[in-house]
Every structure is written in structure tokens, then in C-alpha cells.
Design brief:
homodimer, Rossmann fold, seven-stranded mixed sheet, seven-stranded antiparallel sheet, 24 helices, ligase (chains A, B), acetate-CoA ligase (ADP-forming) activity (chains A, B)
Chain lengths: ~700, ~700
Amino acid sequence: MLEKMFNPESVAVIGASHVKGKVGRAVLDNLLNGYEGKIYPINPNAAEIEGLKCYKTVLDVPGPIDLAVIVIPSKLVPQAVRECGEKGIKYIVIISAGFKEVGVEGARLENEVKEIARSYNMRIVGPNCLGVLNTHTRCNASFAKKMPPSGNVSIITQSGALGTAILDWSEATGVGFDSFVSLGNKADLNEIDFMEAWKDDENTKVILAYLEGITDGKRFIEVAREVSKVKPIIVVKSGRTSAGARAVSSHTGSLAGSDAAYDAAFMQSGVIRAETMYEFFDMAGGFSGQPIPKGDRIAIITNAGGPGILATDSCERYGLRLATLSKETVDALKTTLPAAASFYNPVDVLGDASAHLYRFALETVVKDSGVDGILVLATPQAMTDPVAIAEVICDIKKQTDKPILPCFIGGVVMDEGVQVLKRHGLYNYDDPARAAYAMRMMARYNRISQRVYPQPRQFDVDREKVRGIIDRARKMGITVLGLEALPVLEAYGIPTLKYKMAAGVSDALQAAREIGYPVVMKIVSPDIVHKSDVGGVRVGIGSDEELENAYNKMMKDVSLAAPRCRISGVLIQQMATGGKEVILGMNKDPQFGPLIMFGLGGIYVEVLKDVQFRVAPLNEKDAMGMIYGIKTHQMLEGTRGEKPSDIEKLAELLERLSQLVTDFPDILEMDINPVKVYEKGKGCLALDVRMAISPK
Amino acid sequence: MLEKMFNPESVAVIGASHVKGKVGRAVLDNLLNGYEGKIYPINPNAAEIEGLKCYKTVLDVPGPIDLAVIVIPSKLVPQAVRECGEKGIKYIVIISAGFKEVGVEGARLENEVKEIARSYNMRIVGPNCLGVLNTHTRCNASFAKKMPPSGNVSIITQSGALGTAILDWSEATGVGFDSFVSLGNKADLNEIDFMEAWKDDENTKVILAYLEGITDGKRFIEVAREVSKVKPIIVVKSGRTSAGARAVSSHTGSLAGSDAAYDAAFMQSGVIRAETMYEFFDMAGGFSGQPIPKGDRIAIITNAGGPGILATDSCERYGLRLATLSKETVDALKTTLPAAASFYNPVDVLGDASAHLYRFALETVVKDSGVDGILVLATPQAMTDPVAIAEVICDIKKQTDKPILPCFIGGVVMDEGVQVLKRHGLYNYDDPARAAYAMRMMARYNRISQRVYPQPRQFDVDREKVRGIIDRARKMGITVLGLEALPVLEAYGIPTLKYKMAAGVSDALQAAREIGYPVVMKIVSPDIVHKSDVGGVRVGIGSDEELENAYNKMMKDVSLAAPRCRISGVLIQQMATGGKEVILGMNKDPQFGPLIMFGLGGIYVEVLKDVQFRVAPLNEKDAMGMIYGIKTHQMLEGTRGEKPSDIEKLAELLERLSQLVTDFPDILEMDINPVKVYEKGKGCLALDVRMAISPK
């Protein structure tokens, strides 16, 4: 899939140019620098460029063409694309700018190009991009200044400038690339297509992506789940914060989406998110050159105490465990390390340690079955030989399937050693914190690669009932439902506190007697959102007499506070006692669709913002993950002698809510607040609900 | 102070050596490389070393000596130090190892050296260190391989290896040093002495320290408060996590102390803590080469959208504000930047921007009075000229007192520009996140430099009463007091819920009648810590009859559950209603002494660990800072229509507790749990207390 894009037998450069400094020249030069297929410059005003015969259009080229690179002014692009179609070219890279990013006219042009490509069944990268390249075929169909070193990282970038910076970084650190794609406006091919294409690509071990938005949330999750089981996907998604999101929308036309949705989607699909460029690079370096650790028990070898402590601090901060070395390992270390060395983790081989001693320590520790990965620290001391130590690491790395992350600290003196590591494809971390971070993410990926994604459960529900409620509401012009939506919950098996609707006072009295005192009375009106504010809620009604009084008072209060509202009646509800209050909710994300929210009620949501989001549909693991994902989950597990809450049932409620909002795209927003969770085995009850639906 | 240490007129090297690779040779070579004072090699077995006349002992040197560097085996050090004393040398750097760090015998030797130095009024650095150096006097009295570039950063390090790495890093980044001190075992001079010495040192603009422990907590806070007002102190304190702390104690003899105490002490004394080496370096780079921003409103100038968004994200993550550019600024930018540029913050000068355009944008933005600092991003694009852009930055930097942090992204291509920055003393951040981090810390330092530290308030208290209670308890062999310590609180003006001690049932009845039902009854026993567990607490006692029954049942229950405990009687206490529960506490830190704790009661402390610590004595700002420092402080400010709590009174209680534990070092631990805080103006009441005292 997309194979001919990176490994074409022939490439046409539409807009190839003689002129130094022109993009059409840069692309041609890049291709001439090592690509072994046929190159056809296309330019109506030249007979020959750089010694190659030049053609007026692709239609004039005698042989077949696999890939066309377009670098002509945007207005001329549709015609050129049409000609590519006629010629039977399947892949086009449009480097030219002047499309969606410049406004309405550009967007129209982009659509035209898309239509033409679709009609000829062609696939397009761009427009408004840097191009694509592959280091193994040496097909550099981009205007990037340099070909990066060859390697096993493939990268997608939505920012050309960051793409260039990343290529430059690649040269500096020695982390090599396989394929590089600058996405540009994503008129056709997007990040998902490339992830999918690289899933089974032997040359790609790690997939990196810099994204500002995702084109198709659902498909992204689907594809990323498959791909992330096979190889790590590391993403920097910018526009995380609100100010950042503003910058995105002024930068490209892409919708930033809510960041909670991105976090949830990445989590649910095994995608690893980097926050900064350094995290991005540090993970790329680790995943590219090292095996995946089987666990999180880390050993540290160092030639100085201080950095050893810093590494230990960092491991703990990132949730790695400091390995406890076995007695055999400690005893073995004692045979050869000097008496003043530290034989426990961190293993301190001391400042005057030779490369030989490093080798002994590393060989010994790597064999310990209680160690999943190793950080090897080296600081420049009197006797330190960085080159020899680097060679030891490269050597032992070949004999083990455990990651050994080198951490040569110190700028200039250690550089010779760092160069040796680099030549062997090993990325150096010059701060133990960065090495610990990378190791933690690699350990996390170990779990991701083993994940299973259960199918969401399908509960037996009453769809027709919900359909009816929504349709009736719409007919009445109602788009926000309050208590009237309680039957929606019931239809989907979300139990509610016993209640009855009542049209008048005698109805209400009968309802209260059936339910049993004490009861709560709530006003039911399509026009009232905050019932309490208008005197529309009365709790603890204990008798017929109290109820009559409460009813009359409520009618008076509400008609005073909200004179023109339509009153459908009152709702008589059982008094809730005991249980813990939680909130279940849903809002729609433009990229990912329904996003389910969960949190503990009151202060926990309002002050601590201790909530979890997941993209629907939820499976059982997602639902459990939401509940255990909040910081205050212990509140539900039972603290201070309390019994644990019915977490299983609560998880089921989340799944049922997920099924409801997935079945009915008409539902735009939903708050089930509060839901009472009772102790284990006793279930949950929804007390109130608010549901917004689309007008049609 | 310590001036002759860094600027001596003459230096003796005791243990100077011919032999390449020996420390005694390395120190001599380092001094010979630029130091212009007199150098005296001391070695009984040589007549001359490196062309310098050699002496048997310092006593044989004809002229005066300001500084002696000792590099002989540890056993010989006491004698050499004594000779230095006789000679009248005031400063000694003991590089030799083999002291406290190797065990009991070494510690004895170290003490001997200390005693000798004290008797001659000499000051010592080390032993077991790398040495000291100063780049301005070029006095390199260390065995570090290289002299770092000259600059305005002075550094203290407790790890020689990290010291070497930092010197090496200095060369790589161009951040220059004034003085460098490797502390070693800190037998005499420690981090505080150097902070103090550098406070008024004109050559030092920034103080860095890598510490594993602090020698004298109280003095550290005192000195750091003074120094941090004048220049920033940046500290990496390792051994943060529990595993890290283990590594500290196996590494040096220094006590790690509790990390909460370090965090509190740093916060209270204006010391900025770095978590990683990169944070450490990034701050050093920023503080060293840039002015301090007057606020946190940051502008971003970029030649590409992607990095601009990343920078925006990072600014928000670190709590910086994205500056809103004035209309004048935006209009001015519009006159010259291309139409497709972004004129708002981040200002995008576009990928083909010349250095000239950068200059225009930077000059315009720097003038905006709504901008406190600027990040200038440059990525390698087709037209990018890193050298020219770097020159623009260096140039405009001279005309402004606002920090301009350069952020040249991309390894190899941007390097020429980075070198230009470096030559002008400007540190480059190759990840926008790192620049944003440094800027945030610089903005934070702006507030630190303006801080005032009010004197702790002294309340009118009854010391004698507390003295008496403690003495009586000790006489009885009691070291943990429960309710018996309520009078201690009262003596220090911490109000308690109305209570009476009762020796028997008739006493209890009378007490209850006086207090007024309902009451609570609690067992009073020096042997019972968890009263509830033995049936020793009864709440809601409403009448004489209930009280009699409760009394009898409690005596039975307690004697069954804790048969051998001594029962002093019961405590009858008023029933507490309303208010919010908080916890006040104190525990002793080995380095910093009494550490005051504050948190909201129950779940907030137990599950969320939402607590604040401060080192006593507390001033009013400290106390308020503790209350507003917890994540859930809104609980006390009034949420969901509740009235705000009496925060002023609560702060006073914290200060009173601080005065109590400061007055009585006998108190080792204290929990006042719970304290009820009532609404504003209605004060607080302590309900229960637990106090541990030292046996004598």
C-alpha cells in the first residue's frame, strides 16, 4: 500500500527548473542525488534540465510514470493533475502552496484538485507541503535540504518547518529515518493512511507524527489500535492548551478538537503522546535503537554517586521500579569491583572505573532475571575512557534483548564516546531524567503491544422508546430535555430512582402514596434548566398535607420566577438516601464524536476537575479504566471502614450510556447528575438528567 | 569573605607531583595554565617540579601563602594541615579522599583535621573533592581537566562527577563561570558559606548548586533569603524520592532529610529548585545571559506555525500568559510583514522571512509595553539565515531590558547561528518547551527578588503551663499525650471545644450538665492511641441516663479491649456541629527542625495527600500560603453558595502552633486533628490532639 509512493520506478517533476533557489530545482537536485529510477523533468519552457530531457507535459513522456511531484503555481495545478490522470499516474505529491490555507478561493481550487484525483483514482500528498522521501530507495521527492541518515523511523509531519528541523535533528543525533512525509493540507492522504501503510513495512520500526489535527477520529482509533500492537506510534499533537488551540485555527484550517478527546483517543488506541520535542526525540531514539523492555524493573550502572541518585530520582518520578539485584548478581559484582564500589542498585563502579570494569558490571547485571532494562551512566572523570565504554555498551547490546540506554553526561569530553554510540545506532541521553523518561515510555509500550481491545458489549435496550421521546420533543420544538428524559435512561437499562409524573395535585398525591413518603417534588418544564433557581425543587415531603402545600407553593413560586414557562407538571420522586454521588456525561467532539465523561460529584468535579474522558463506544476495560482513572477512585473502593461501592454496575452504566449516545447521534450532550452508587451488589440509581438533542 | 580562596596571591600544592596522570600533577598543571600568582609545589622527594622550586613542607616556603591545596594520602593530611596552621595559611582545599566517606576511621581522621583547622582559624574546602577554581583570576586549584569559559555563574557541587560534567557542559553551551567549588565532605565550609560569600560578589550574577543534603537548615534559610533577593539561587537537590534517598545515604554520610522539608525550605527562602539537569542548565543559561522579565506576558516570534503552536502550548502549561499585542504593535507589524503573516501573538513572519524581517518584527514587539519577554523561534527553511537572525537578536538585546530567549530549532543547519548567540553569551533553547520553562522561572524570580519576609508574630501565651504539662508527663514516663494535651493548645491560644476531665461517673455527669447536652465522651489514657478502636469514644450523648449507660459500657469495653491500660478518666466534650474539618500538624525534620503541616480533613489528606508543609517559624504570609497552597482551598473560600470559612483565624492557629513547637523543642510530633473551621468571623475549634515529646 502506497509502496510506489516511496519506491517508484519513475518520477516526473512538474515544474522542474534550471534556476538555483527555486523549489523546482531543489526537488530535481534531491532526486538526482542517489535515486536510481527514471527522472522526467516537466517544463514547457525548457528542452533539457541538468542533463535530463525535459517534457512539456507528463503526456509527452514516453514511458510509464509512478509518481509525479508538482511544484507549479496553484492555479495551474488542476490541469497538471488532470494530465497525470490521463497518463495513468497513481501518486502525486503537490508541494505548491496557495490552496485551503489562503482562503476561500484556495479551498475551491483544492476541492477541484481532489475531485479530479478521485475521478482518476489517484492518491495525493499535500498540497502545501515539503514533499516525501525515503532513505532506502533514496527517492527524495521533497525540497528538504538534506537526506537524513538511513534508519528505521518513519515520520509524518503536519508542519513543514518542524519536518525540516526533525531531519536536521536526525543528522545531529544519528537516529535514522526510513520514510518522511510532509502532510501539508491533507487534501487526500492523511496521517491514518501512512500509519496503515507502514504497519507491515519491514523498514519501519517506529512511527512518529507531528499533528495539529486528526482528519477522521473514528478511523484513526481503529487503525492506530491495529498498528500500535505491531510498532510504537509516537505523536506530538500541538494546540493542547486553549491559547495553543487558538494558534492552530489561525494557522491552518484544521479543527483542533478538544484536547481531552485527543488524550482519550490516544490512550484508547495505544498511541504514545509526547509533550515536547525533546520527549519526541528521546522516545524516537530509544524505540529506534533498543529492544522493548519486558517490565519496569530498572538497573543503573554509574561511575559516580551524584548522577546515580539523579537517575534513581527520575526512575521513581516516572513510575519505574528500581530493580533489586539478586544475591548471585551482588556476589558476582563483589568478586571484581573494588571494595568501595556499590554492589546494589545503582551499581557504582567508581570514578576511576575502566571500560573493562564497566563491561564486567554490565555483563553481570544484564544477566539478572530481575532486571528488565539498564541505564548506563558515564561522567567524565580522570580515568574515564568514553570511547571504550561506548564500545562495551555496543558490544553487550548485541548479546541481550534488554534495552541498555547510554547516558554519557558532559558536553565536549564525552562526545567521542557519543559518536561511537551513534555509529552503532544508539541514541545517547545526556540527562539521566531523559533516559528514565524514554525507558518508562518503552516499558509502557510493552503493555500496549500486548493489549486486547474487547468489543463493546451490546445490551438489550428499547431503542423505539428513545426514538419516540426524541421525535416527540422535536415536534414540540424542544431541544433540551430535563426530567422528561428519565425514561430515555430506563430504556437503556440505566436505573432511575422511583418516580412518577403528575399533571396536577391529585395526581401528585396518588403518585406520592404509591412511591411512599418521604418524596421529592420537582417541576417539569421544557423551559426551565435550573429547577432549584426558580423554586422548582422540594425535598423531604413527608405527608399528604406537606405535599399539597408544597405543590401550591411551587406553582406560585415558579410562575413568579419564570412567568412564561410551559409547565408540564411535577415529578414525584423517591427520596434518595446513602450512596456516593457520581456524574456521568457526554459531549460531542468534532473529530471523535461522543465523548463520555465520568467523575465523582460535587467538589471533586467542580474544584478538583478530577474527571476522565473516553471516546465512545466504550468497552468494559474503557469503563473500568475511567473509574480507576480518577484520582479519587479510592472513595469508591471503600476508605475508613466504608464498604466498597458497586463499581461493576457503575462501569456497566457507562457502557450503557455509551451505547445510547452511539445509537442516537441526535443526542448532542448529556449529563446524568447525580447518579447514586450504592455499596457493592446494590447497584446505582440516576437521580436527574439533562439531554440536548439536535433540532432535526 | 573567602576572597583569598578564589583570588590568592600564592598557592602551595601539597603533594605536587612529576607523574603524569597523578592528581598532584594535574592540579599543578591547572595552576600553571594562566594563574599569575606564586605557585609553591610541596613534595619532600623532589627538588623541582615543572621548573618550579619544590619545598619539603609549607614551613620551608620563604614567602607568605594564601591558599594550600592538599593532594596527599589521607593519613598524612592532619600533619600537613597543622603545618599550614603554623605557616599562617588561612585557606585549605583538601582534595584527598579517604575520610568520612570510607567509614569510622576516616571520620575520625576528618574530625582531627577539623579540630586542627579550627585551632588555627583556618577554613577548609573538602576533603574528598575536585577542588575550587575561578575563571577571572584563572586560579584553578582543582584537578578538573579544563578551565570553563569565563562568565557570571558561580557553582557549588556536592558531586565531583557532576561538577566535571557541568564544566564540560559549560564549554559546550558557552555559559561561562566565575567560581566553581566542589564541596566534597563539607568538613568545614559548606554551601551556605559560599552563597553568603557570593552575595556581594560582582562577578557572580547567578548561583547554582548541586546538593545531596544541607548542613544547617536554619542558617540555610536565613542566608538564602538574603541572597535570593539579590541574585537567583538555583538548586538541584537529589535524593528526592524514597529510592533516591536510599542512594544518598549509601553514597555519602549526609542525611537526606525529608523531601517535603527541602521543598518547603526552598520555597520559603526564594531558592529555585530544578528537577533535572536540563532544567538546571536551561535556567543557568537564561539567568546568566538575560535580564529578568518584569512580568509573565510573553510574545512569540516565529518563522513557522507548528513551532509557534508548540511554544504557545508550553507557555500555557507553565502558567505564562500569552501577551496581547497592542493595536499600535499590530498595525506596525502590518505595514511591513507580508499579508499572509500572522500579526497577532504568536507573530509568524513566515518561512521565507529574512533577518531584516525578523529585526523589524522583534524591534516592534519589544517596544510593546504589554510584553514582558519574548521567545524568538527560528526553524531551518529554504531562506533562513541562522547567522543573520542570531546577529539581529544579539543586536536588539542590547537595546532592551526585556529577556529575548532564542529558540533555534534543528541540529546541524542552525548551528552556525547558535555559535553566534553563544559568542554573545546567549544560550539557545532548541525546544520551545525548554525556553518557556526558563522564562517561567525567570518571571518567578522577578517576584522572589521583591519578596519581603515578615517577622513571625509573637502571641501572648502561657509558656509555664506547657512547661508544667510536659514535665509532669515526663515524670510519669509518658511520651505521647492525647486529650491531656488540650490544655497545651489553650495555653497557646488555640481554642478547643468546651470540655471537662472527669475522674468518675458522678464527675462526668456534672461535667455534662455544665457543658450542656448533647456531649461526647472520650476515654483518657496514656496507653491508648486509637481511642475508637477500643470503644473509647461515644458521641451524641443526650441525657444523664444515656451518659451513665455510656460510661459503664465504655469502662467495660476498654478494659476488655485494652486490659492493662491505665485509665485517667474520661473527657466530656461539647458536641461539634457544622464547620469544616482541617488538620494541623508538626513533625521534626533532621535538617530543618519543626515542619508544620496543613490539610483539609478526611479524604483530602488520606486519599488526595493534599497537604502543605512549611518550616517553622511561620510568618503570616507562610500561614496564608499554606492554606491557599492546597489544591482544595476553594473548599474554605465557599463554593456552591456556602459562606467562606474563617481563613484568617485558621492562619493564626498555624502561627500559634509554630510558636508552640519553636518554643518547645521537646515536642517531637503533633497532630491537631480535627480542627473545625467555622464561617468567617466565627473562628476555629480544636477537637482532638496528639503530641509526642522527647523523654528528657
